TrEMBL record:
PANTHER family: POLYSACCHARIDE EXPORT PROTEIN GFCE-RELATED. It is a multi-pass membrane protein. It is found in: Cell outer membrane. Keywords: Cell outer membrane, Ion transport, Lipoprotein, Membrane, Palmitate, Polysaccharide transport, Porin, Signal, Sugar transport, Transmembrane, Transmembrane beta strand, Transport. It comes from the Bacteria. Residues 103-165 form the Polysaccharide export protein N-terminal domain. Residues 476-522 form the Soluble ligand binding domain. Belongs to the BexD/CtrA/VexA family. Gene3D superfamilies: Outer membrane lipoprotein wza domain like, wza like domain. This is SLBB domain-containing protein. Residues 182-259 form the SLBB domain. GO terms for molecular function: polysaccharide transmembrane transporter activity; porin activity. It holds the Pfam family SLBB_2.
Length: 575
């Protein structure tokens, strides 16, 4: 019993965190008539949202050079997704062997040399550079190679052999492999320690083996390579990330790679190719320099600078054109924004019509302005014009996610009264969670119901809107839990049950009491409230939700209905 209590308690902690995140969704403003039928967040979610809302005092009319003040908020913690360069260390190359020797590689004790001689004297051997830095050649004696560059190896061997063999002896020498070394990686890395590799392995490989630089504490600008008491090199990884420059530093046994503590940091957000945290060594950094790293998007026009001063948070707002000479300091937050109104918008017309499919309209154009340009065909259903909008689609998706998270939390935190009940609940929970995953993949249509509105012509159009003109095709679509989903010729004398019978009747998973009819104009009716079927209607038979626990059944049934309305599909609850 205690085992199940511990599991339920652990899962509850995870779900509470998920609910808190879901509660942060801002309530969207209402549109004219919208197919948003999802339930509002639970009371617990609303309480969590209010508890997490920051106190803010801000000048909503801030313009160029204006500022605002708010209560100081806690800075967000760094992660591999927020720190510039941190995704370099993802383990992709930590176990890969070293590359080819560079021409400037310096031969050291322990290196292996392949030597082949032919002609008057034959030899095929592998030589190891001894602790004195020499290799021993038969009939020649010791040859010093310590400190010789790789590109000079052949020349050194030729010189030594020529002192003994005057003619008819030829040779070829090359490095066989990097010297096995043990390198210490210390400082602000995720897993400091000693790591084995070869002298040809790069600095990045050793850092990757150590788990990479700690994004919260380590520096990407100051990575030092030490040998004994001397610092042999200091590497700036920003040069590698932005310019492709990486100094070739040959590592030896016992070398130390030390990652210094992180210097000053500025956070970049908003309309930038690299919305990350950036490090700099000086006390301040110019916005022009920061922009070279963050790379603002072409349509960004303004910069919002948020600065913590004591226990206050001040906000400045500038245009990009006038802000390049400004400086920011550690802890500041820079957000690139687009503070401009569109001069024109594009709206697409789909469906049954003869007019152009894409229209460029002035900002502020209304539905009536566009419908006046549409050239209908005899088969156009002009009374059932449909409007689809991206902002509504996003809103519907957000509300669906809230409903699914609420169901997920209910499932995962449900308690069991016995071992047998726990087993049943576990199997049922797995089935429900799989269904939730499927539901999360669905995309709402974003439809705005305008056909029956007397003010539809006054509705403002938005950029990216789609106007769809249905066709009078004389068909009724029957889908969902019927044996043979199909399109059936419209007959004004047929009722809902007649169309379902024509589609083979109900399946064994159908809920015959839950039938939704979607009309061509975008509205919905239940069978109970439906007077008659019209041309272009879609009959959707919803599935039964057969679960062992009534609360789950009610929640899932409600979401199934909401999905049918907002997405236009019936998501069954089969295994």
């Amino acid at each position: 019993m205690s085992k199940h209590w511990f599991i339920n308690l652990s899962i509850a902690a995870v779900c509470i965190a998920g609910l808190a995140q879901a509660a942060k969704l801002d309530p969207a403003s209402k549109l004219m008539v919208v197919n948003d039928t999802f339930a509002k967040p639970s009371a617990a979610s609303q309480i969590a949202a209010q508890a997490n809302a920051p106190a803010l005092v801000q000048n909503s009319n801030a313009g160029y050079g204006d500022s605002a003040t708010s209560v100081l908020s806690e800075p967000s913690k760094a992660s591999a997704n927020t720190v510039f360069g941190a995704n370099l260390f993802s383990g992709n190359f930590s176990n890969k062997g070293g590359g080819l020797f560079s021409p400037d590689y310096l031969i050291a004790s322990g290196d292996r040399i392949i030597l082949r001689m032919w002609g008057a004297f034959d030899l095929d051997t592998e030589l190891i550079v001894d602790p004195q830095g020499n290799v021993f050649l038969p009939h020649v004696g010791p040859v010093r190679l310590q400190g010789v560059r790789n590109q000079d190896l052949q020349k050194s061997i030729n010189t030594a052999i020529a002192k003994v063999f005057r003619a008819n002896v030829y040779n070829y020498a090359s490095l066989a492999m990097g010297q096995p070394v043990k390198v210490y990686v210390s400082g602000f890395v995720n897993m400091p320690g000693m790591y084995e590799g070869t002298s040809t392995d790069s600095l990045l490989q050793y850092l990757d083996r150590a788990g990479g630089i700690d994004p919260e504490r380590g520096s990407f600008l100051d990575v030092q390579i030490k040998r004994g008491n001397q610092t042999r090199a200091s590497i700036n990884l920003y040069d590698f990330l932005t310019k492709g420059n990486m100094p070739q530093v040959q590592l030896a046994d016992g070398d130390v790679i030390f990652v210094a503590p992180r210097h000053n940091v500025v956070t970049v957000k908003g309309l930038a190719s690299n919305p990350k945290q950036f490090e700099f060594t000086s006390n301040t950094i110019e916005l022009a320099t920061l922009g070279q790293l963050a790379k603002p998007l072409p349509h960004a026009t303004n910069i919002r600078i948020t600065r913590n001063t004591g226990n206050k948070q001040n906000t400045e707002y500038h245009t990009i054109a006038n802000a390049n000479q400004l400086i920011v300091q550690s802890g500041d937050e820079v957000e690139y924004t687009a503070d401009k109104k569109p001069g024109t918008i594009t709206v697409r017309i789909e469906g049954e019509h003869l007019s152009a499919q894409e229209y460029v309209l002035p900002y502020g154009a209304k539905v009536g302005d566009l419908l006046g340009k549409v050239e209908y065909t005899p088969n156009s259903d002009s009374a059932s014009v449909q409007l689809f909008r991206n902002s509504v689609k996003d809103r519907q998706k957000a509300m669906l996610d809230v409903a699914l998270k609420s169901l997920e939390a209910t499932v995962l935190t449900a308690r069991s009264g016995s071992v047998n009940e726990a087993k049943i609940r576990s199997d049922e929970s797995t089935k429900i969670l799989n269904w939730i995953d499927r539901a999360r993949q669905l995309e709402p249509t974003g439809q705005v119901f305008i056909a029956q509105s007397s003010r539809k012509n006054d509705l403002l159009l938005e950029n990216g809107d789609i106007i769809r003109i249905p066709v009078k095709d004389g068909l009724v679509l029957v889908g969902g839990e019927v044996l043979f989903p199909n399109s059936i010729a419209y007959d004004e004398n047929l009722r809902v049950e007649d169309y379902i019978s024509a589609a083979g009747g109900f399946t064994q998973d159908a809920d015959s009491s839950r039938i939704v009819v979607a009309h061509a104009n975008g509205s919905f009716s239940s069978e109970k409230n439906l007077k008659k079927i019209s041309e272009g209607d879609r009959i959707m038979v919803l599935p039964k939700v057969d679960t062992k626990f009534m609360q789950f059944s009610m929640d899932i049934s409600q979401i199934v209905y909401q999905i049918a309305v907002a997405v236009g599909v019936v998501l069954d609850f089969k295994n």
